[in-house]
């Protein structure tokens, strides 16, 4: 089991924020130094955060599918507090499908706390609402992602991160968030193909070496959206739906933080609709099967990463 730094006593907001960041760095250094067995569950303090290590350069995080609501953590009163139902189970289904198809494990990081208690896809002040226990869990969550990405890049020189979410928008399709707003995606192809656009997105490392234009990577015939639709899962951006309807989730804190401009990491946030994707165990397996097939094609063609058939 992991040993993490204790949370600091209450301080002025700025000093507290600095100490939380330093605590996160200390957590990460201790986690990276550990020896992990792929597929085995490891936990942070009080089992609020779960890490299942992998041996593939594929990392999947699930911040909003937890159910635990311990009384020791203050209930958040600001921000979004609804859970993304069944996304924890969806992440686990994806992990099992990866293993079934390849004989290897993706890295999984799961927050087991309900979003009323902690939102791991927000900056720590909003995420933990001042609770030292929640702040410690937040640090553990992101330290485990750091560990997974460090292990993946040590193995393959690069990594692909998927932050898995659920949405209840009227437009029932997968929303693929590359850190571009709906307004940006609705702009001209000339602007989207400019270096500045790719540099601001979460596929920047793929765009640097791809033979495809950036617009094609985002919504062309070999884009993730196109590949999902070929598997029977409507998605946006895609050839059929190049500009998302509003509301649209473009990707949040986790992708911004961990897909840094100076790292060999690409990825995206996937917002999954409920019906046909995460509503039943059967549909979760069906989506997991499609996701593995999509990633096998996309990563081999665009990122020189191969999820070989078992």
Give the SSE map.
Layout: H1 13-32, E1 42-43, E2 49-52, E3 58-62, H2 87-102, E4 107-111, H3 124-128, H4 132-156, E5 159-166, E6 174-177, H5 182-185, H6 189-192, H7 195-200, H8 204-209, H9 214-219, H10 224-230, E7 235-236, H11 253-258, E8 265-272, H12 281-302
Parallel strand pairs: 3-4, 3-5, 5-8, 6-7
Antiparallel strand pairs: 1-2, 2-4, 6-8
Helix pairs in contact: 1-4, 2-12
Q: Any overview of this molecule?
A:
With 310 residues, the chain is an alpha/beta fold. Helices cover 41% and strands 12% of the residues. An eight-stranded mixed sheet has the order 1-2-4-3-5-8-6-7, sandwiched between helices. Helix 2 links the parallel strand 3 (58-62) and strand 4. The radius of gyration is 19 Å and the shape is globular. The protein starts with 12 loop residues before the first helix and ends in an 8-residue tail after the last helix. The model is unreliable at 1-33 (pLDDT under 50).
Give me a quick take on this structure.
The protein has 310 residues and is α/β, with parallel strands linked by helices.
Annotation field: number of helices: 12
Cα-to-Cα separation, first versus last residue: 31 Å
**Main sheet makeup:** 8 strands, mixed
Please, what is the average pLDDT?
Answer: 90
**Multimeric status of the protein:** single chain
* Helix share, percent: 40-55%
Series of H and E elements: HEEEHEHHEEHHHHHHEHEH
Query: Based on CA inertia axes, which overall geometry fits?
Result: globular
Tell me the fraction of residues in β-strands, as a range. Answer: 5-15%
Biggest sheet, spatial arrangement of strands: 1-2-4-3-5-8-6-7
The tally of beta strands, per DSSP, is 8
Please mark out the parts with pLDDT under 50 across 5 or more consecutive residues, or reply none.
1-33
Structural class: alpha/beta
Give the C-alpha Rg.
19 Å
């Amino acid at each position: 089991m992991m040993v993490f730094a204790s949370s600091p006593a209450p301080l002025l907001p700025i000093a507290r924020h600095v100490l939380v960041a330093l605590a996160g760095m200390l957590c990460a250094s201790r986690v990276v130094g550990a020896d992990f067995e792929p597929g085995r569950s490891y936990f942070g303090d009080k089992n609020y955060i779960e890490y299942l290590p992998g041996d593939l350069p594929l990392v999947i995080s699930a911040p909003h599918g937890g159910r635990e609501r311990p009384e020791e953590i203050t209930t958040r009163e600001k921000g979004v507090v609804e859970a993304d139902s069944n996304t924890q189970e969806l992440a686990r289904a994806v992990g099992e499908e990866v293993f079934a198809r390849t004989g290897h494990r993706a890295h999984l990081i799961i927050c087991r706390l309900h979003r009323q208690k902690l939102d791991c896809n927000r900056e720590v002040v909003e995420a933990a609402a001042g609770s030292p226990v929640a702040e410690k869990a937040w640090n553990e969550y992101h330290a485990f992602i750091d560990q997974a990405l460090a292990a993946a890049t040590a193995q393959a020189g690069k990594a692909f991160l998927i932050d898995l979410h659920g949405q209840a928008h009227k437009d029932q399709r997968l929303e693929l968030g590359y850190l571009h707003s709906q307004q940006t995606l609705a702009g001209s192809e000339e602007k989207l193909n400019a270096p500045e656009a790719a540099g601001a997105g979460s596929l920047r490392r793929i765009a640097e070496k791809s033979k495809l234009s950036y617009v094609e990577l985002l919504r062309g015939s070999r884009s993730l959206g196109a590949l999902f639709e070929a598997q029977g899962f409507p998605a946006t951006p895609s050839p059929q739906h190049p500009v998302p309807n509003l509301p649209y989730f473009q990707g949040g804190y986790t992708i911004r933080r961990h897909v840094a401009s100076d790292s060999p990491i690409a990825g995206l946030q996937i917002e999954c609709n409920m019906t046909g994707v995460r509503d039943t165990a059967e549909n979760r397996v069906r989506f997991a099967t499609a996701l593995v097939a999509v990633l096998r094609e996309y990563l081999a063609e665009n990122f020189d990463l191969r999820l070989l058939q078992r």
